[in-house]
UniProtKB/TrEMBL annotation:
Residues 19-98, 113-187, 234-312, 382-454 form the RRM domain. Residues 353-365 have a biased composition (Polar residues). This is RRM domain-containing protein. Keywords: RNA-binding.
Amino acid sequence: MEEYPAKQAPENLDDPPNSRLFVVTSRAVTEDALRDGFSVFGEVQGVWVVKDKQTKESKGICYVKFAKSSQACLAMEEMHGKVLSEGTKPVKVFIAQSRSSTRHRDVEDEELTRIFVMIPKTFSEEDLKDTFKEYGDIEYCVIIKNKFTGESKGLGYVRYYKPSQAAIAIENCDKTYRAILAEPRTKATAPEDYSGGASRGDYAGGNDAMNQYAAPMADQGNYQAMDYRSGDFTRCLMMSTRAALTQEQIFALFDLIPGMEYCELQRDAYGMSKGHALIRYSNLGSAVYAKEKLNGFEFPPGNRLVVNFVDDGEDRSSPVGRMAMQFVATQMMSSVWNGGPSTSQVMKPPGFSNVSPMSRVQTDVSLPPPKKLAPPDSKTKERLFVVFSPSPLPPDVLEDVFCRYGSLIEVHLVPGRKVGYMKYAEKQCADEAMAALHGRVVNGVKMKVMLADPPREESHKRPRTY
């Protein structure tokens, strides 16, 4: 799309990788303003403003090339949402795709924070962390081990909280570690055990716990799945998911039913999520109710949970035990299907039998109380542009979340895209919503909340998806 003057461009615009920024800004921002604004983060090798071929006017899209990946990542972290020139809108800054890439989306921050290293086989995870913690705050370290012997393979992963920290580690660590950026593994890459015949390229693609919707449906290990129709009710459930849900999200979801006494996300030998969790309740009734309510439940939207009974190791061979189990199960199934008002509180947990919109909102931010929507004919003073990852939230959930800051007029999702707009009657309310919700996760969906372009530009400019 863009054209680079040969006299300015380095020999390879993707050398080093992830050293080029994609910047969305106002059309009035000049090349000099961009260079001045970004040069504080390192050596800027080139700045290119994309212009309309007919009018030669700026399209409000620019590229900035740095000498180092760490400089580009730091600039992205610091400049995203900042104003370059007075009177212009805040810029949106992302790591640009490689020019040879065939993907149709920009590089996500999560893809830039995990590095793959070669280490001595005597290294423990604590040794690995101590070695690389000087370059930034570490989220976790994983040493790849032989699944049969438990011995280290001399390979490991380190995930940082920020892309710039991972880039600095790659640039500055001892070259014997041969640090590279780890790529999320696809179905075509090496098998899980990272066996000796695989190439280094295969090693670089371990299962990424942060790569939402990328993990295949994991098997259920040695747990024996059961079918409630055969009468094999238990107090233990196995929940499977294609989305990378956290332990906290799963716990909060199943804790809605009283009596949960155990909940654990299953992980492999490398500390990565297997895509399923084991949940145990203190009584059979709660387990049956949880299975009926949550099997097939979409959380986050677009990801359908699969919940089955599993063998909890208890002996049910005795006639008394079997009769008791069937009796409780029959009562539970009757209450679930008929919804009779005489059902006890244990069988119909308050606030869950008739699920309210708020009970479905799981978020990592403290939300204020809901406020009334502004009249539909209110004048729009400010619009927020929201990017969803991995998929959009339902309009009713978005309305429930964004109305809490006041003066929300309406929610609009762009069909077929992972973006939407929130219209506000008061600018201050929109600013408060943006400040509180940008980068937050609602129902497993991460939101990037930014000021939208002026309405006059909508007719000829389609919003870019990130």
